[in-house]
Amino acid sequence: MEKNEWVRELLDDDKFHDECGVIGITSPGQKNVAKDIYFGLHSLQHRGQESAGIASNMYGNINCYKEMGLVQEVFNDDVMSKLPGDIGIGHVRYSTAGGSKVTNAQPIVVYSKFGSLALAHNGNLVNAVAMRNQMEDEGYIFQTDIDTEVIAALIARNLRNGTIEEAVQKTCRIAKGGFALVMTMGNKLIGVRDPHGIRPLCIGKTENGYILASESCVFALQGAKFVRDVKPGEMVVFEDGEMKSYMYGPEEYRMCSFEYVYFARTDSHIDGVGVYQSRREAGRILAREDKEDTEADLVIAVPDSGTVAAIGYAEESGIPFGEGFIKNRYVGRTFIQPTQEMRELSVMMKLNVLRENIEGKKIVMIDDSIVRGTTSVKIAKMLRDNGVKEIHMRISSPPVAYPCYMGIDTPDRDKLMAANKTIEEMREHIGVDSLKFLPVNGLKSCIGLGDNICTACFTGDYPVELIDQNYKTNKLFNDDRMVGEYDDIHAEDSKPTL
Ligand code: SF4
Prior knowledge:
By secondary structure, the chain is an alpha+beta fold. It contains 21 helices and 25 strands.
């Protein structure tokens, strides 16, 4: 195992990972809004731990600082003093080990004769390669390998023929995939959600201004009131304390269901649905499916991701909830080359079994998902080694069998356990007495948004055409299509709707 893989395994709990969290704040008259961005980024740290950045805007002049590391490692008083302004945006990023470099950190700032633009992005475009290739053919030179720069470059190009509002809408109609953008230019803060609403973005109101954030958990610390979620295909523009809304092109609404399963913080609400409530209901549904045939003494969770669903399971089943593991919350990044022995113990660095709670018992163990299954195997062994009599593993999402291309870091399909084994084979491989997953209709039911969720990593039913995948693998993509779409777009089509 390469060192990077080890570090990744140590830190990642064998989970899907959100690639980014974004925040934007406008607070007219306040000259150091970067401080509020900094605290907001702390609330979004769970969405990305590789790099952090803030761009501040003072009368259209943009200053930006970004670096590898956690928010508290990247910023200090000296750095913050160099980020003046009453508008700012911030970003935290998770990335795979290979793409983990400061040039790929955000926000991105582009300078043009029309002004400076700072942009931060959560998500992934499914046609970034195609767009990038076309722009490179036209002579554009990119400085990073992230799709955010493609978006920024297209906006800058579109500024030749219109206002920033028109340029952003024009660009967002070309960009395909899942994206939530925050940006600032001149005296404006702008937020955009992709046409399907795959990635979340919500609006909060402070005493002086507004906040845009990936998750509503940001607002409490800022003393902000939740206003609403940005709608699929909507751009919101904040200027001089006023908000305007532009619907640039909503399509079928397909919010990422994995936000509710795992990514989002438990105290967030997304599109009117409480993350806590949806996870608890997932546990309740699992318990209802089990009622007839599972006997157990205790319900435990794999902390923290399985905890809320385990509480729901216990409530519904009447089996008591207890702690089976104690989590070490201080395992951080490591630059020490591990020994083979340490690799074997990686899960134990994060989790200790509470033997007195579980010894001799029949256990229902709840986790939120199984991705590669490597951690599940180790956890099951730890329980067996500590005298558990039976392990009934319940997963509060359906089997993950497909990669995500809309902003989530996922292994290739051949690494996903559910893509390569039957549930019975998975049970046997993990070493548990029974294994059940939340069915897809159960997932829809616990979220409560009906068919308006993306379930592609469970079903393979992607809400967008995977243009770059075809482009890279089959060369099916015809560059002319993008040119056609680009030329067909008229900014006058977009009318303010507020
Ligand atoms: S494929 Fe899965 S992780 Fe990706 S957007 Fe859809 S539900 Fe979310």
